[in-house]
Amino acid sequence: MLFLKTVTVRAADKIILHAISHIFEKGKIYAIMGPNGSGKSTLVQTIIGNSIYTLDSKSSMTFNKKKLNGQSPDKRAKMGIGITFQSPLAMQGISVFQLLRLALKDMDVLELYEKIEKIAKELKIKKELIDRPLNEGASGGERKKLEVLQMALLNPSIIFFDEIDTGVDIDSLKTIFTFLKKYKKNKTFVFITHYSKIFAYLKPDEVLVMKEGRLVKKGGKELIEEIERKGYEAF
Fold it and tell me: pLDDT tens across 84-103, in order?
């Protein structure tokens, strides 16, 4: 369980998130929605420990009853917090297999490669993308699939999907969500987006609406329909 209590965040001495409180429960699916610049990605970057954001001294973040305040991004990842990025970068000189080998040192090499091949097949990832430097020559959809593959093997208990549909064609999006439905089990999924189309594939248990750095409304999936009808100006 991830517990945010009055999370106020500064960047360059300017407050950009205002007293956000919420509990993300185990096994649930969440949507964080809002227009561009509403603070969605900033909130996630704060949770994973991006050092450009400063957490107010009165703010508190705990994950499975352990304090996140002051913990490094690496430590938070080891605690079970994962993220797929909006624009995954290419990495020269290291393949997805080599990257996962570094992260999963206790796993047998052959077992790891077999698991990568199995998940890659389910996600319809070309074999050459597994062997070449990470994301080199990969399309937007292929990069997102490779991120999902990494999350499936790293196995965090909560995953933030930051704009997972950006640069992804409809067929790739269907493939990704078909896999996520199967993979989810007891994990917590948090989708950050300003479009509602992805929720045709996976329905959220709770929707959070952000605007101008504030959490302005919470509710069920009916909020998505309200956003589609009225836009974010209604909040």
Answer: 987 676 677 788 888 888 88
> Tokens 């080998």 belong to which residue?
101
User: Are 38 and 213 within 8 A, CB to CB?
Assistant: yes
Please, what is the angle between helix 170-183 and helix 109-122, to 10°?
130
Q: What is the H or E stretch that residue 60 is in?
A: strand 60-63
CB 17 within 8 A of CB 46: yes
Rg (CA), the chain: 18
pTM of the entire predicted model: 0.92
Domains of the chain, residue spans: 2-234
Q: Which amino acid is at 48?
A: I
- Domain at 2-234, CATH class: alpha beta
pLDDT tens-digit readout, 67-80: 999 899 999 999 99
Q: List Cβ neighbours of 164 (8 Å cut-off, separation of 6 or more).
A: 84, 144, 173, 176, 191, 193, 198
